[in-house]
Amino acid sequence: MDVQKLVSEMTLKEKASLLSGADFWHTKAVERLGLPEFMMCDGPNGLRKQDGESDHLGLFTSISTVCYPTASAVASSWDEEMADKLGQMLGDECLREDVSMLLGPGLNMKRSPVCGRNFEYYSEDPFLAGKIAAAYIKGVQSKGVAACPKHFAANNQEYRRMSGNSVVDERTLHEIYLQAFEMAVKEAKPKSIMCAYNMLNGTYLSENKYMLTEVLRDKWGFDGFVVTDWSAGKDAVKGVEAGLDLVMPGGPKDHEEAVIRAVESGVLDEAKVDRAVINILNAFNWTLENKLSGNRPSDETTRKADYKFARELAENSAVLLKNNRVLPIRSDRKVLFVGEFAKKPRYQGSGSSHINSAFVSNAFDAAADRNISFVQGYDTGEKDLKRIAMLREEAVEAAEKADIIVIFAGLPASYESEGFDRTNINLPTDQDKLIEELTHLGKKTVVVMHNGAPVAMPWIDRVDAVLDMFLAGDGVGEATVRLLYGEANPSGKLSESYPYKLSDNPSYLNFPGEAGNPVYAEGVFIGYRYYEKKHMPVLFPFGHGLSYTEFEYSDLEISSDRITDEDTVTVSIDVWNVGRYPGKEVVQLYVGDNESRANRPLKELKAFKKIELKPEEKETVTFTLDKRAFSYYDERIHDFRVESGDFTIMVGASSSDIRHAASIYVEGSTDIPLTVTERTAIADILETKKGKKVLGPIIKKTLEDHKNESVDEDAMGEGGNEMFERMVLEMPLLSLVSFDIMTKEETDKLVKKLNR
Ligand code: BGC
């Protein structure tokens, strides 16, 4: 398709028709020119294709298919290869089903553990989310199917998700809430992006020129098309002006007419309509040209292979949170499975990502050939207190006869969904009580968790092991059993911190905000960035996850201990499997700025790698860090920059299990444009190149004079010279006059010189 030519042949009406959908899932066709309609469907953890008539909310039955682990699980695998493969499996399925675009992945940050959609998002860390998202998008698009990362951006809660206003400062926005999108756009070049429902700093994302044009296209080089979240389209003209291309699902019904009216009355430049049409058609044309042929058929063999991958991904994602030498379970042990989820596991979330699974494995059936028995223990739908007590008593009785008790616990479906947030992070009370009572029997107890987001574990000190499966998709039951019995070795690491209680979370006082208008007052201190800075203990830290084997780290080496921000530095470390099982380890690299003008986290994830090692095997893991690893977003230049100084590079097995560290000096090269007045602080002037040159010598001399004059430093208390230096640096230029260091005329001249 020659897109430019096609667009030049279109009438205004035809062009305007392409800017909103035909129905819930299709764009409009232009039959006169042979342009077909294109179909897009929900992901992200499976293909939700509605075959027949679509309903109002597009939530009725979809085709029967495979449900993969949801995003919070996928991110906990820290496995880019698997995320890529997941994208490929989904891309393949889209091809089989004639779907041109998959609506995913979701990569909003987990600002609060209670956001109802957290199961559909990756992490509290933008680097991890960005890497996993980029891999997934590359996988989908390698099949010639467009991916559509969502929801762009600062859409971090469900309460008033369609109308709320997220108030976020520029630095926080770029460092935290945009970074994963930026990485996904730059590394994977998605053909589309979905703008969120909410407002950002007072403007709807669907009408937000700063976000849709200045950041997305001008700064990051995005060359796909922007589609609204479903029904997020507002004013047609404002949308097109801001850089919005397609309104779904058909948008406000008069979208098409509104565009035509606006062009005809001269309010909207037709060239902007052309731009939107070209963006949309370029992407769909790309799918036509790149669609892989010879796609795997839609038969039983394909289905089985997809399911097998879903199970493997679940095994790779599960996190062993605690293990008091009870796991893996020896085959001769008499094991009691307790809990509804052993037979009817919770394996996905509710809402637009809900998959119509053809088959879901459960742990009870998967362990049928082992020495297990089962008791229900709780019923997620039960309200009757007597029956709840009876179920618990039955479980306690049955547990007397077992060697090991495995409790399948977790959040009922009604707790986690698109559309609303949780109000707390607790398990249902009857489950907490059941676990607590079973731990009083003096038996070994294991808890298997099914949850899309963190939960509190008041019984944690009393149980021997906790295996977190998250929402693990169709393979959940088999994966759980294989992990419990050591046929698979846990290798996931937490992609978000588990706080002891909800009120520990940094967003607590501002979530969900007055009338759904959250102020992101905690700034860049999201998740571990906050807990660490406050030295606050957590139930389990970011990056934590155990294995049945053990890994030792040695010989951290950096290629240089002094670089400029135009150089890169290589960091390598040896990792050994010193335990008895083959296993996988996620090697994590964090960077901390030892001293900075900006308030920065103690450490931030900047690289990671998942490796696989047999017992006694060693691998040297190498990372390359560039400028961005040391940068923060400086609002004065509206960009990332490195502040010259010492940094610490930390490598370890979790954010709180750093095994080795090294120091490096990085010289920053970005100058700060500064308009100097007599009220500007001396420290700020000295940060600029010109300031250093012009004012630097004067200040140096002042400090030296002071040192030489103050024979008795103790007169000002110990450290008097240092105090003097600090005082001077924080003074406005004007104070040099009051303290007789310069005359008024001299400072006026200096200001002129600095601004020249
Ligand atoms: C959700 C999107 C989804 C769309 C289509 C919206 O309500 O926020 O994530 O892709 O519906 O189902």
What does this structure look like?
- This protein folds into 4 domains: 3-290, Glycoside hydrolase, family 3, N-terminal domain (TIM Barrel); 318-491, 3-Layer(aba) Sandwich (Rossmann fold), CATH 3.40.50; 551-667, Immunoglobulins (Immunoglobulin-like); 682-755, no CATH class.
- 32% of the residues lie in helices and 18% in strands.
- It has 24 helices and 26 strands.
- The protein has a 6-stranded mixed sheet with strand order 10-16-15-14-11-13. The protein has a 5-stranded mixed sheet with strand order 18-26-25-20-21, with no helix packed on it. It has a 3-stranded parallel sheet with strand order 1-3-4.
- The chain is globular, with a radius of gyration of 29 Å.
- The structure holds beta-D-glucopyranose.
- Beta-D-glucopyranose (BGC) binds at residues 42, 58, 103, 150, 229-230, 352.
- Beta-D-glucopyranose is lined by residues 42, 58, 103, 150, 229-230, 352.
